Structure to design on (488 residues):
């Protein structure tokens, strides 16, 4: 009857923030409450209630360490009606209060729960049996409790560093979003396609040179002192290779960062598989907008159409081989990314500001939104004026988001290291000025939303003039930062 206990554990992990009763577990496992109690205690060594409390506190402890949520908010998230009740349960399991736990910042680990399940756990000071033999006989593996990847998670807007932080926090390392996005170099990126209005301008793969599309992903992992593993999908024959890569990593309890699986090829996480890899589970920034995607009870997407959707790149964390990257090395990466250059059709680094400004000041690209006529674009497609303005707004706003998110977090990173080198503080100040310019750009159009009023506002020449001034002002601040980075 071990399968009944494993089924009960899976039910608990998937609903860890909800009320879970012995009766609901008994109904789920098709056993009587009395027999389930006896069986669960025998197999797990704990009464059901104690096991649920331990798992709930372990998950709450993860949030205490790796999120900026208030302790009261975390208590409410996990079903505790009062903060005092939460504190008592937390101290009973961990030995300290939540506020003390956050200050101490002890390590957490991933725990094998049986039956191809992993979950976060408190470090017990001993090695855990990962039960590889058992896993090899399973048709599925699910890593529960991996932090959600979505726009805005950890205060960030770039899916790859969000995925990177979620993954490494799950593996027990304490980094923040600023470390993730600045360490890989993406915080300093800016790209503008000079041949057409490109909705993929700010895709993170353009951070370095076009001939090195994997570099930003590998840099993200090495910045954490780990060896990276990567697989590029290039042909139909790669399906089995992708499945094998994912299954190998998940058997080790390591989530996989995938560009694709659900929606466009932005980064997300694969946190589980079923049916020997035919069905994948995980987090994607696009899952809530895809009506065809099934959602697991724990919130993960569930898809058997991942191959049809497309998978570009897979990245996973290897072993820890050294300490995290130094601020000096991060500064060197930043200078490499910001270097003004033309890379094929892409203007990159400081050169991208001029290309962006040229695009915004080109009046021929911005038709009159009130004209009731269709316009034939260079690609031969017919669109209304508002549709064209909507596309221009998306491209422009992506660039604004890029510097707002990137430079703000670069500012945070270098400000933390200002005691190591006086220039870091000055560099942080310049990045702060760039981020402020981005906020002012939003104000020119009346907000950050990409709706019709903002499309019409972008169509007004006077507004575009103000935007060009702010773009060039941001370039001036970035240039000063770049010149200081070259001196380090």
């Amino acid at each position: 009857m071990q399968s009944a206990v494993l089924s009960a554990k899976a039910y608990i992990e998937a609903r860890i923030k909800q009320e879970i009763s012995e009766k609901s577990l008994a109904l789920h496992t098709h056993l009587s409450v009395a027999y389930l109690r006896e069986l669960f205690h025998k197999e797990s060594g704990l009464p059901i209630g104690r096991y649920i409390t331990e798992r709930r506190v372990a998950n709450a402890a993860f949030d205490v360490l790796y999120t900026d949520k208030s302790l009261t908010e975390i208590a409410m998230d996990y079903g505790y009606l009062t903060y005092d009740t939460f504190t008592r349960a937390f101290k009973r399991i961990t030995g300290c209060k939540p506020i003390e736990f956050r200050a101490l910042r002890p390590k957490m680990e991933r725990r094998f729960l049986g039956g191809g399940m992993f979950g976060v756990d408190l470090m017990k000071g001993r090695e855990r049996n990962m039960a590889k033999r058992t896993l090899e006989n399973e048709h599925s593996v699910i890593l529960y409790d991996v932090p959600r990847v979505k726009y805005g998670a950890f205060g960030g807007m770039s899916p790859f560093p969000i995925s990177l932080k979620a993954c490494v926090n799950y593996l027990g390392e304490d980094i923040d979003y600023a470390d993730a996005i600045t360490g890989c170099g993406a915080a300093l990126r800016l790209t503008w396609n000079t041949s057409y209005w490109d909705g993929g301008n700010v895709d993170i793969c353009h951070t370095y040179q076009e001939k090195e599309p994997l570099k930003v992903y590998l840099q993200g992992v090495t910045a954490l002192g780990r060896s990276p593993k990567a697989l590029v999908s290039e042909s139909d024959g790669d399906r089995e290779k992708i499945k094998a890569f994912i299954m190998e990593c998940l058997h080790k309890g390591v989530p996989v960062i995938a560009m694709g699986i659900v929606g466009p090829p932005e980064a997300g996480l694969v946190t589980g598989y079923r049916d020997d890899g035919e069905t994948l589970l995980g987090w994607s920034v696009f899952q809530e907008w895809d009506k065809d995607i099934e959602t697991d009870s724990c919130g993960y997407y569930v898809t058997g159409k991942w191959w049809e959707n497309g998978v570009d790149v897979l990245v996973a964390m290897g072993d820890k081989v050294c300490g995290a990257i130094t601020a000096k090395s991060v500064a060197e990466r930043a200078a490499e990314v910001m270097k003004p250059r033309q890379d094929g059709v892409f203007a990159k680094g400081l050169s991208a500001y001029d290309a962006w400004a040229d695009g915004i000041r080109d009046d021929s690209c911005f038709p009159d939104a009130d004209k009731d006529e269709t316009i034939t674009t260079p690609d031969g497609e017919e669109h209304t004026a508002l549709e064209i303005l909507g596309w221009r707004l998306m491209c422009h706003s992506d660039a604004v988001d890029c510097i707002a998110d990137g430079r703000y977090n670069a500012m945070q990173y270098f400000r933390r290291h200002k005691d190591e080198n006086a220039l870091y503080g000055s560099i942080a100040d310049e990045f702060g000025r760039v981020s402020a310019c981005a906020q002012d750009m939003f104000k020119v159009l009346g907000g950050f939303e990409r709706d019709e009023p903002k499309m019409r506002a972008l169509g007004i020449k006077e507004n575009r003039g103000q935007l060009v001034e702010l773009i060039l002002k941001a370039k001036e601040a970035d240039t000063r930062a770049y010149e200081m980075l070259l001196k380090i």
About this structure: The chain has three domains: 2-121, 153-320, 338-485. Residues 243 and 275 are 11 Å apart (CA to CA). The two ends are 63 Å apart (CA to CA). Residues 125-137 have pLDDT under 50 and may be disordered.
